[in-house]
Write a structure and sequence with these properties.
By secondary structure, the chain is an alpha/beta fold. Helices cover about 50% and strands about 10% of the residues. The chain has helices at about 10-20, 35-45, 60-70, 85-95, 105-120, 125-130, 140-145, 145-155, 160-170, 170-185, 190-200, and strands spanning about 1-5, 25-30, 50-55, 75-80, 100. It is elongated and about 70 Å long.
Length: about 200
């Protein structure tokens, strides 16, 4: 089983090599940049799996993943990352990645994941993919209804009541009513002030 590891952190790369080669049936190669990874994919005998770090020199995220997938008749490529979100993991799987591996995985689980993907399966840890991501609450946002937030967003974009009504597919008088209510809730006297308050609160 041949595995290529591309990660710019020397310690992590060496640790992965040690774990995988400790299995006895794995042959590994390792590089520290995306460019070097592409060169090895093109120049070496086919790999059973290529592990790419989501954030490393030249990688450019999912774009790099797609490029690696297109090389040399499309070998199996998986993402490994310490900070990628669940959305990035989902996008990677949809793009055709063999899997997504968080760097927080215990060594044994990581080795098993690599074996699983190298054998042709798609892998992503269930607990990571189903974890509820905590949404940061915004004090100003909590004062407003979802519809009022949509209207306020329209105001920050400089749209007229008519344009906001068209975007939200509701009547202009209803928009006027929402505007009046949200002015009172956020403490604004006019559209400009409401937009400024929203921006200062980091809403949009």
């Amino acid at each position: 089983m041949r595995v290529l590891i591309a990660d710019d952190h020397d310690l992590l790369r060496d640790t992965l090599v040690m774990f995988l080669e400790g299995e006895g049936r794995m042959e590994t190669a390792s590089v520290g940049t995306f460019q070097d990874a592409c060169a090895r994919i093109e120049g070496d005998a086919p790999y059973d799996l290529i592990l790419l770090d989501y954030n490393m020199p030249g990688m450019n995220g999912l774009e790099g993943l797609r490029h690696a997938l297109s090389l040399k008749d499309g070998q199996r490529v998986a993402l490994i990352s310490g900070e990628a979100t669940r959305q990035i993991a989902e996008d990677a799987l949809e793009a055709g990645a063999a899997g997504f591996v968080p760097k927080s995985l215990p060594a044994k689980s990581l080795v098993n994941a690599v074996k699983f993907m190298a054998m042709g399966e798609q892998y992503a840890p269930i607990d990571f993919m189903t974890a509820v991501e905590e949404e940061s609450t915004n004090a100003l946002a909590e004062k407003l209804t979802p519809r009022e937030l949509q209207v306020l967003k329209g105001l920050t974009e400089g749209k007229s009541n008519k344009e906001i009504a068209r975007d939200l597919d509701i009547t202009e008088p209803t928009i006027k009513l929402h505007v009046k209510t949200l002015y009172r809730k956020v403490g604004a006297a006019n559209r400009t002030q409401a937009a400024l308050i929203a921006r200062e609160a980091g809403l949009f």
